[in-house]
Amino acid sequence: MEQGDRRHDIRDGAYALCRRLGVGLCLLLALCCASVVARAEPAAPLTERAVLERPVIARWTMQEGLPHNLVHALAQDRDGMIWVGTWEGVARFDGRAFTVFDRQNTPGMELSGVFALLADADGGMLVGTAYDGVFRYAAGRWEHLGDARAQRLRVTAMLRDADGGLWVGSEDGLFRIEADGHLVDAGAAAGLGRTRIAALLRYRDAVLVGTPQGLFRLTAHGTRAQRWGAAAMRTASIRRLAPDCHGGLLAASDEGVFWLGADDSLQWLRRGQRVDAALQDRDGHLWMSLSSGQLLRRAGNGASDEVLSISGVVSPALIEDHEGLVWAGSTEGLFRVAKGDAGGLTRQDGLGSDYVRVVQQNADGAIWIGHAAGLDRWQGGRIHAVRLSERAGRDPSVLALAAARDGGMWVGTYDQGVLLLSADGSIRQRLGVAAGVPRSMVRALLADADGGLWIGGNEGLLYRKGDRTRAYGSADGLPGRQVQALYRDRAGVLWIGTSQGIATLAADGTLRARPSGHGFPAQNAFDFLEDADGTMWVASDRGLLRLRGGQWRIYDHSVGLPRDKLFRLLDDGNGNLWANSNRGVLRIARARLAELDAGQRSTLAVDVVDRSDGMPSVQGNGSTAPAGWRSRDGILLIPTSAGLGLIDPALPSRRDVRAPPLVISHVQVDGVAQPLRGEYRLHGGVARLAVGYAGLSFRSPDKVRYRYRLQGFDRQWVDAGSNEEAVYTNLPSGSYRLDVQAMTSPLDWSRSERIGSASLQLQLVPPFWERWPFVVLVALCATGLILWWYRGRSHRYRRRQRRLNTIIAERTHELKAKNLALKLANLEREDLVRKLAYQAGHDALTGLPNRRTGDPYLNAALERALSTRTPLCVALLDIDHFKKINDAHGHEIGDEVLRRVGEALRASLGEQAFAARHGGEEFLLVLPGLDQEPARARLDALRVRIADLVLYDDDGRAVRFTASIGFACVSPALRTRRDLLVKADKLLYQAKREGRDRVVG
After folding, report:
1. I need a labelling partner for 651 at 20 to 30 A (CA). Which of 528, 579, 834, 937 fits?
2. Which GO cellular component terms are attached (predicted)?
């Protein structure tokens, strides 16, 4: 090892240790300061608009592909890619995936410890490293800039000059890499010495240099640096420099932020507090990375400061991208801050549980939120818990809400029936078993104007008025037992959604059922919505259904719906239907539905609001009512598995939706990466061509969809969905052009202004073996070879045929004799196999099938009963006191008892029933086609027959014995073999406990 290398490694190790100690101290300071800020700031009223105005923060870490969680620097290149400098290399981000460049995947590149990034005007990216100078990336190639001295710089800042030179700030001063690669010590010439350079910025035809000793100004290369700015700026330790939106300057320092306006006016913000970076976004908001480890957003009018919830210690990495999104780095990853069209109300805001089931706003403006841990009331900017449990302990899960006539609220619970609450949340009435109301799983409520209450749940439909309760079930025509939606239309008809279809109940009491598959094109109906013209919309598990003029119309995935299962339908009053689903909330324009019906389009353009828009979760909850509400302010309230989602139906961020920039990210030919360029000429046969692309929409990268077409090969566009690579194998030679298009949802490929595009020219030059002279020569040679081969083969064939005729005659006689012997052997083997199969599947003692035969028979019988909806009962029979019989009379008598019980089973159960020895003295009985009471009678007769049996031992003593039987029948709760056997076994032991010699089931 050279001596210089040893010094370099020692210096690097010491430097790395200092940085890590610094990070640790920053973390400790951040925790202290954060706690002080949290105590000092009063809680603001929690309104719907306040929730919606929260920024949407996304985070990426090493788990998502970052080379390291400690992010030092950020930049965006000309194409729109985000570059991230970390402690372990640099990564390029397209919104969905990171492409990492480090010493492991980029030979010769020492890219660990990246502290500065600078986008070049020609589309390249400059990467400043902690120990190895500056690297430049352009068109898929890397270059190490400068001479040997330049390649050892510890880079902290960079600035490109108009003449092609590069200003480089380092830990050891200011340098300049000239266009020819020569390194110049610019700091020495400017009189700055060996001080650390923290920031560089071109401002008003001069270079501003930020150092720990203050702010300096260089008018030209080679001139002396002059202290510049207000008195405090000249001596403050400068951290970062950035231009504002109006020609001014932001200087982040240990003394706060100096904001110098274009008119030379000065504002001193966060005075006396260290600020590591400052940025003004296009909306005028000021962003600051504080030494406390927090990211602060100051409103454009300066009225308020907001501390954003970013984990870790925020680093000086802070930029605004082309879409107006703010990116920040911290010790715990990369963060993106964006405006959202949605927000989330969670336990952090005071909810009792994040698993929200139902929501409804009352006449007084209070929003009632039912969740897995009870009920909350949101009013006046505060969330108040509503106590529901009748005893101390956990409140029940709330599954249904309905406004009462007097301003109160009816509440349906998971296991405590129905409650009537006053407007203030106090309990006025409980409806339970005594009132004829099941305590469990109340999923839907509907309060009539006359005081009647409709209750739907897992036990069917109930109507309660006064002290009377009327139940509706399958006998009344209800298609399914589980009722999960209730809706009163304009004509007064009650619509009932169940798990097996829908039903309507007219004012005269006539109930009309539309079961699944017979009048209703879905299985589950979760919600109803009526239009003014009487059209009825249904949210179902088969898509959005429309009933108009007695005809059903289905809108599902085949016409562009992202998800078929929909839970709730809301009308925003602006021509849109909103549907809650397990993949976000869908906005469907009524105009697009009309165009689809008229044949003017083949698919719907559906907008999806999900986590990228600020929703707490994409999983909406349903099978409860109401699973969504439109508030008095027009805000949509959506229950999800991670909180209550709030959506501004105007979707303001969508108003300026533009075509996502589309870039070609990589080209691979037979697995070998190619330099990026607009045209490729490829020689020889190409077995596999892969072209990667990326539509850059960082606000909602998961909503970008692609299609591509290879002109000269594809006849039409290939729908790629979210896939970011086009692959072709064994393309024929010729000229091609690959066209790629990208669009963010809602998809409407007819709107060219929203389509991003990119193209690639390809020329596949045929190899020599595909050119016509070579082909003709090969054809002639092949023809000659074929003729020669054919003549030789014909001669050999005739000679061989003569020999074969003789051999065939001899072998035919031998084969006939062997065939006869084989047939006899096969008959013996088949007989043996049948005997072995019978012995393997039957009990030798009783002659009954054993468990090996019994289990498959039970599975088949259960499957047949479930598919044909016929009854089936399963019983377990156990001989009482069998061990005592063995002990008292000997095992031979015990064996005879088992044989006699087997004979009784065969004689009593008949051909349609099945009996098998299940093990020991226990027998399995399968009774197809019998309900509970017929099965009980059959089994009781068997029990009596066994009790009448008498044996005599060798001493002439009479041996009598009895049997206990437990049986269970198929029901909604017992639908598997295991459940039936477990239930039958429990009932068998119940029979034992109750005195034996009985049937329990």
Report:
1. 528
2. plasma membrane
pLDDT of residue 582: 93
* Residue 868 domain-assigned (yes or no): yes
| CB neighbours of residue 27 within 10 Å | 15
Residue 283 lies in a domain: no
DSSP state of 624: S
Place of tokens 């991003």: 756
CA 399 – CA 394 distance, rounded (Å)? 15
pLDDT digits (tens, 9 = 90+) for 492-543: 999 999 999 999 999 898 999 999 888 899 999 999 999 999 999 999 999 9
Q: How many CB atoms lie within 10 A of CB 700?
A: 24
Strand 543-548 relative to strand 536-540: parallel, antiparallel, unpaired? antiparallel
Contact 602, 46 (CB under 8 A): no
Instruction: Please give the tally of structural domains in the chain.
Output: 4
pLDDT at 43: 55
The residues with which 241 forms a beta bridge, in sequence order, are 251
Assess contact for 132 and 110: CB atoms under 8 A.
yes
Radius of gyration of the chain (CA): 40
Integer Cα distance of 12 and 6 in angstroms: 10
Amino acid at 29: L
Is residue 986, in this structure, part of any structural domain at all? yes
Q: What is the pLDDT of residue 6?
A: 34
Of 44 and 719, more confident: 719
- Residues 692 and 815 reside in one and the same domain: no
Residue 522, domain member (yes or no): yes
Close Cβ partners of 159 (under 8 Å, ≥ 6 residues apart)? 118, 166, 167, 169, 200, 201, 202, 207
Residues 461 and 375 in one domain: yes
CA dist., res. 105 & res. 786, Å (int) = 52
| CATH classification at residue 449 | 2.130.10.10
pLDDT (tens digit per residue) in 191-211: 998 999 999 999 988 999 999
Domain around 808: 771-839
- pLDDT for res 289: 93
Region 829-852: mean pLDDT is 82
Cα dist from 81 to 123, 281, 379, 656, whole Å: 10, 19, 44, 20
CA dihedral 833, 835, 841, 842 (to 10 degrees): 180
Q: Decide: 483 and 496 in contact? Cβ < 8 Å.
A: yes
SS3 783: helix
Q: Tell whether the model's pLDDT for residue 835 goes beyond 80.
A: no
Tokens read off for 561: 């719906």
Side by side, which strands form the sheet with 382-386?
Answer: 356-361, 367-371, 374-379, 382-386
Could you write out the DSSP letters of every residue in 823-837? HHHHHHHHHHHHHHH
Q: What is the percent of the chain with per-residue pLDDT over 90, rounded to a whole number?
A: 65
Three-class secondary structure of residue 124 per DSSP: coil
pLDDT at position 108 over 60: yes
What DSSP designation does 659 have?
P
Q: Which residues of 825-834 are buried (b: 16+ CB within 10 A; e: fewer)?
A: eeeeeeeeee
Same domain, 536 and 617: yes
Q: What is the mean pLDDT of the chain?
A: 89
Which residues on adjacent β-strands are paired with residue 184?
176
Residues linked to residue 511 through DSSP beta bridges, in sequence order: 505
Helix (H) or strand (E) holding 873: strand 872-879
Say what angle helices 851-868 and 977-993 make with each other, to 10 degrees: 110
411 shares its domain with 507: yes
- Rounded Cα gap, residues 163 and 179, in angstroms: 8
The token pair that represents 574 in the structure block: 């602006």
In this prediction the pTM is 0.71
Chain center to CA of 799: 72
Strands in 56-60's sheet, in edge-to-edge order, are 56-60, 333-338, 326-330, 314-320
Asked if residue 882 and residue 982 are part of one domain, the reply reads yes
Distance, C-alpha 350 to centroid of its chain? 26
CA distance 372 to 640: 11
- DSSP, collapsed to helix, strand or coil, labels residue 798 as helix
